[in-house]
Amino acid sequence: MLSATELIINEKHVKIGIIGAGAIGRAFATQAVRAGYEVVLSNRHGPASLAPLVAQLGGRARAGTVAEAAQAEVVFLALPWEQVAPVAASVSSWEGRLVIDPTNPILLPGFRLAELGGRPSSEVVAGLVPGARVVKAFNTLMPAVLAANPREAGGQRVIFYSGNDSAAKATVAGLLQQMGFAGIDLGLLHEGGKLQQFPGGPLPTLNLLKVA
């Protein structure tokens, strides 16, 4: 039996907040809108800066503030690593949110690996959004590949995901299905997060298709 959250996802009634409108945020927004979801896009420059992108995406997308995007049932945290902590701290409460984490722990300039204290990056992110359920996903593909049609050559493009909350992962699996991707569950953040992590894990940049 589907949970209430899964039913919302599958009926496309859920609103998805996207914090960060860089290449990954735009690619995800494109897929979400194509699948019929309503999205609220936000960035640090304010809603007016997103007008061209919203016009391109169409009527299911609107611009908002970071606070507004963070109020959505599902929040896609598409930020450069150095912005994750300050932006997360600016949100008054993460309680009850499902946070999809596509971030990679890279510091610029210099393309340096951030200090993670021996933990996968998504465990660090989970500590920055107390009360939220974090699912690692959408970080292993290049933006152009992520934005492309997920159905290709008779197969579905694979998206890996991991998380510590089984209901949250089931919700993300439903979202992936609606978008046309093939989701593969890698287990807990401590396990799957390491496989997905870039740099260091073996899965980033792999463009795989699952054929029925």
Features:
212 residues, alpha/beta, ten-stranded mixed beta sheet, two-stranded antiparallel ribbon, 9 helices, 12 strands, 36% helix, globular
Helix content: 25-40%
Radius of gyration: 16 Å
Order of helices and strands: HEHEHEHEHEEEHEHEEHEHE
Mean pLDDT: 92
Total helices: the number is 9
The N- and C-terminal alpha carbons lie at a distance of 24 Å
| Low-pLDDT windows of residues | 1-8
Shape verdict: globular
Number of strands: 12
Q: Biggest β-sheet: count, sense, barrel? A: 10 strands, mixed
What structural category do the secondary elements indicate?
alpha/beta
Query: Which percent band covers the strand fraction?
Result: 15-25%
Question: How would you explain this protein's 3D organization?
Answer:
Helices cover 36% and strands 23% of the residues. The chain has helices spanning 4-11, 23-34, 51-57, 66-69, 81-90, 121-128, 143-147, 166-179, 189-196; strands at 15-19, 38-42, 61-63, 74-77, 98-101, 106-107, 112-113, 133-137, 151-152, 155-163, 182-185, 209-211. The chain is α/β, with parallel strands linked by helices. The radius of gyration is 16 Å and the shape is globular. Strands 1, 2, 3, 4, 5, 8, 9, 10, 11 and 12 form a ten-stranded mixed beta sheet that branches. It has a two-stranded antiparallel sheet with strand order 6-7. Helix 1 (4-11) runs parallel beside helix 8.
